[in-house]
């Protein structure tokens, strides 16, 4: 793709047809009504008012229905809304996610919604794929051309960005990774796994411009995940059938390197105090406890403790 052959998305076909039909009807009916009023001997100001109304209706239809668009080149993605434009360099983009108000595109500094590409809350709740998901995935394909996934061809594995339509996949992986291991903390008979709440949380994570969510695939099959922001690893897990093969270590190291690359002096995470296996895993990778504690998110709200790992090469302070 070159700047001379940019790609453009506008509102959906149904919306464009409806807006065009509305504009055509307004352009014919209102002037005709103004003419009939004029022929009927009404004051001149009344048909003139109808003509002005026609112009305003056509401007509205164009500005809000036909003008908004999303266009991309090999350097930038540009959002053109009715009254404002936004431009993002591909290298700066951290999130692309469909939403009810528009396709969310953002960097760590700012975000904007493309009004011309929307996904209803109903489709979101039902997990139904729409035009907005397809466009988001096409844009993320371009992002990965600029920042390719981390691949190990010999092992047949890669770490890639999680897509906005993969909240249910991530929830399934998280459940598989944690349900049995945490049964002594969350007894299933008393506290069934909160699948719906976890799916909703992943949707929020995948649409958060400050969060970075990745999947680890082995021969194109997703087996693990990690999500982190500028200084904290928030979610990490590997499916039971693939544990003890170094995948969790690879995901944790990847997250730490990304956090350190952003300038953080240390990486942080929270682990359930009674999850001795996880605590041992982090200690084996050089993490130490900070002494900070808090209640966890889900009932019965067991205690979590904070761990940290120092950046071995922290950035120097500028003079």
Helix run count: 8
Strand order, biggest sheet?
A: 8-9-10-11-12-13-15-14
As residue ranges, the low-confidence spans are none
Q: Mean pLDDT score, rounded?
A: 92
Please give the CATH class of the largest domain.
Alpha Beta
CATH homology group of the largest domain: Gcn5-related N-acetyltransferase (GNAT)
Whole-number total of structural domains: 2
What profile does the largest beta sheet have?
Answer: 8 strands, mixed
Separation, N- and C-terminal Cα atoms? 43 Å
Brief synopsis:
The chain is of the alpha+beta class and 319 residues long. It has helices spanning 13-39, 45-66, 121-126, 131-146, 167-178, 195-206, 247-261, 276-284, and strands spanning 7-9, 69-72, 76-80, 85-89, 95-97, 103-106, 111-114, 150-152, 157-161, 212-218, 221-228, 232-238, 266-272, 288-295, 303-310. The strands form three sheets. It has an eight-stranded mixed sheet with strand order 8-9-10-11-12-13-15-14, sandwiched between helices. Strands 1-2-3-4 form a four-stranded antiparallel sheet, with no helix packed on it.
């Amino acid at each position: 793709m070159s700047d001379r052959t940019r790609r453009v998305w506008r509102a959906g076909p149904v919306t464009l047809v409806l807006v065009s039909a509305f504009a055509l009807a307004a352009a014919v009916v209102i002037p005709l009504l103004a003419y009939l009023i004029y022929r009927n001997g009404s004051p001149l100001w009344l048909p003139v008012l109808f003509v002005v109304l026609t112009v305003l209706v056509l401007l509205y239809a164009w500005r809000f229905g036909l003008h908004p668009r999303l266009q991309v080149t090999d350097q930038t993605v540009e959002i053109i809304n009715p009254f404002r434009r936004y431009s993002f360099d591909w290298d700066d983009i951290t999130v692309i996610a469909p939403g009810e108000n528009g396709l969310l595109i953002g960097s760590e500094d700012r975000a904007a919604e493309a009004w011309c590409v929307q996904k209803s809350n109903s489709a979101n709740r039902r997990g139904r794929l729409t035009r907005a998901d397809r466009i988001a995935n096409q844009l993320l394909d371009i992002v990965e051309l600029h920042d390719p996934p981390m691949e190990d061809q010999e092992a047949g594995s890669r770490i890639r960005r999680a897509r906005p339509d993969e909240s249910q996949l991530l929830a399934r992986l998280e459940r598989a990774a944690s349900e049995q291991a945490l049964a002594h903390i969350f007894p299933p008979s008393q506290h069934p796994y909160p699948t719906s709440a976890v799916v909703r949380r992943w949707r929020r994570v995948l649409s958060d411009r400050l969060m970075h969510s990745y999947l680890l695939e082995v021969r194109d099959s997703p087996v693990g995940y990690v999500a982190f922001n500028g200084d904290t690893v928030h979610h990490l897990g590997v499916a039971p059938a693939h544990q003890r093969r170094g995948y969790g270590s690879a995901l944790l190291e990847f997250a730490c390197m990304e956090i350190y690359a952003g300038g953080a002096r240390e990486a942080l995470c929270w682990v359930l105090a009674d999850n001795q296996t996880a605590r041992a895993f982090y200690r084996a990778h050089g993490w130490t406890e900070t002494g900070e504690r808090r209640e966890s998110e889900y009932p019965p709200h067991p205690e979590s403790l904070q761990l940290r790992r120092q950046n071995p090469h922290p950035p120097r302070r500028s003079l």
